[in-house]
């Protein structure tokens, strides 16, 4: 799959607005700022060593944009994108082959989000999306960057605190495909859980 920049994906996921004003909450354009906590594992092959379960826990800041449509009754369907603004530590290890460190950079997602209104201003939703990132690898033999991609699955709750401002909480599982570092036989595979708390504005 040809790599597409996160900013292009973010723009492509926001569909043109209809000419009329939104009638109910959760319809139309929304923009948000999220604070996240990531925790997961990385399987990393370095030389003759297979390092399993490199734990990483890191706080990060991200932005999101989405467009929502009414889908009949209390259902809302949204398309959107997210972009991490901070790097995520991917784990460190000392092996017989030397020191190894991983860092996930410019992580982004493009997703679809079916939801149901529990109340007039509270939405429960599921999320399925494409996940991409640049994994930076540092070792005693040098450093490299490798694009990784995978899938994410999550669920969340979004609720308005006034006419335009909402709060949200979300949990998501991310699974990246296994890949080799450029020019090397060493491979790595990352997965993890992401928890988000967000503040957003519905236009």
Structure, described:
By secondary structure, this protein is mostly beta strands. It has a single domain (6-13, 30-83, 94-171, 179-202), classed as Porin (Beta Barrel), CATH 2.40.160.20. 4% of the residues lie in helices and 71% in strands. It has one helix spanning 6-13, and strands spanning 28-46, 49-51, 56-70, 75-84, 88-95, 98-119, 122-139, 142-160, 165-176, 179-180, 187-202. The protein has an eight-stranded antiparallel barrel with strand order 1-3-4-6-7-8-9-11. It is elongated, with a radius of gyration of 19 Å. It holds the Pfam family OMP_b-brl. Residues 8-203 form the Outer membrane protein beta-barrel domain. It is found in: Cell outer membrane. It comes from Rhodoferax lacus.
**Radius of gyration, rounded?**
19 Å
Distance between the termini: 34 Å
- CATH-level-2 architecture: Beta Barrel
Largest sheet: 8 strands, antiparallel, barrel
| Beta strands, count | 11
Number of domains: 1
Strand order, sheet with most strands: 1-3-4-6-7-8-9-11
Kindly report the average pLDDT value. Answer: 83
Basic shape: elongated
Percent helix range: under 10%
Strand residues, percent: over 45%
Provide the CATH topology: Porin
Which segments are poorly predicted (pLDDT under 50) over 5 or more consecutive residues?
15-22
| Helix and strand composition category | mainly beta
The CATH top-level class label: Mainly Beta
Series of secondary-structure elements, N-terminal to C-terminal: HEEEEEEEEEEE
Helix count? Answer: 1
């Amino acid at each position: 799959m040809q790599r597409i920049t996160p900013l292009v994906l973010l723009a492509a996921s926001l569909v043109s607005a209809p000419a009329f004003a939104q009638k109910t909450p959760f319809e139309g354009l929304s923009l948000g700022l999220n604070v996240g906590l990531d925790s997961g594992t990385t399987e990393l092959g370095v030389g003759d060593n297979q390092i399993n379960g490199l734990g990483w826990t890191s706080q990060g800041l991200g932005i999101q944009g989405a467009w929502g449509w009414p889908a009949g009754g209390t259902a809302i369907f949204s398309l959107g994108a997210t972009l991490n603004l901070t790097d995520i530590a991917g784990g460190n290890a000392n092996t017989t082959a030397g020191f190894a460190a991983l860092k996930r950079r410019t992580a982004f997602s493009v997703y679809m989000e079916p939801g149901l209104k529990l109340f007039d201003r509270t939405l429960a939703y599921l999320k399925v999306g494409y996940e991409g990132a640049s994994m930076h690898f540092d070792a005693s033999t040098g450093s490299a960057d490798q694009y990784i991609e995978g899938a994410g699955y999550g669920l969340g709750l979004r609720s308005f605190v006034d006419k335009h401002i909402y709060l949200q909480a979300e949990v998501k599982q991310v699974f990246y495909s296994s890949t080799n570092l450029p020019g090397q036989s060493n491979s790595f595979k990352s997965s993890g859980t992401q928890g988000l708390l967000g503040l957003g504005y519905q236009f």
